[in-house]
Design brief:
Length: 203
């Protein structure tokens, strides 16, 4: 990412009244209570709590990153620390606020699991399939090493690029011929392109 990256103001979220939003949530829960279905209300309360935990963790992480001493921040770009953090990035992507394009975000995801030496082969726009090549092949090119790389890639992509719905990893076989490991459905979006929150990590 080049220095001076800025968030597109046209994607800014409209102002929201916190008091009214809280009241709206309470009203929905009250309506569920009047249905006489305690399981439905309990599920709704659990959903609200899960979202509060997720966004609370994200806000705490942002404060932590922003309070980092200037000398320890990535030089040249005040947003670099936020955009490179998995939890913060997942929130920005979820609301279509992340200023980086898909290719850059995929690169960020793979950089976060660089121990697996995964290189991008191509991305299929129609199926959402990202094809990767394991540079080291895990030594023997066995399925176990491929599975480890797959899981690491899926976890990272869930935060940075949920548009990727499937991952294929090519590894080198014993004979030197590349073998294709089909991962299946990937992180984030499964049907359509609606992103879902990634698991929150502790600040």
């Amino acid at each position: 990412m080049s220095a001076g990256t800025t968030i597109d103001a046209t994607k800014a979220v409209p102002a929201v009244d916190a008091v009214r939003t809280g009241q709206r949530i309470e009203d929905v829960l009250d309506r569920l209570a009047t249905t006489g279905d305690p399981a439905a209300r309990a599920a709704a309360e659990e959903l609200v709590q899960a979202l509060m935990d997720f966004y609370g963790a994200g806000l705490a992480r942002m404060l932590h990153l922003l309070s980092t001493p200037v000398g320890r921040r990535t030089p040249g770009d005040p947003l670099a620390g936020l955009l490179g953090d998995e939890l913060v990035a997942s929130l920005l992507v979820l609301h279509d606020l992340h200023p980086e394009d898909r290719t850059t975000r995929i690169t960020r995801a793979l950089d976060s699991v660089r121990d697996h030496e995964l290189d991008v082969v191509d991305f299929d726009e129609e199926t959402g399939t990202l094809r990767l090549r394991a540079a080291g092949g895990g030594g023997c090119g066995c399925a176990a090493s491929g599975t480890t790389a797959q899981q690491a890639a899926e976890d990272a992509l869930a935060c940075f690029a949920p548009e990727v719905t499937a991952v294929e990893v090519q590894t080198a076989g014993r004979s030197g011929e590349p073998t294709l490991l089909q991962i299946g459905t990937g992180p984030g979006t499964r049907a359509g392109n609606t992103a879902r929150p990634a698991p929150a990590k502790a600040p």
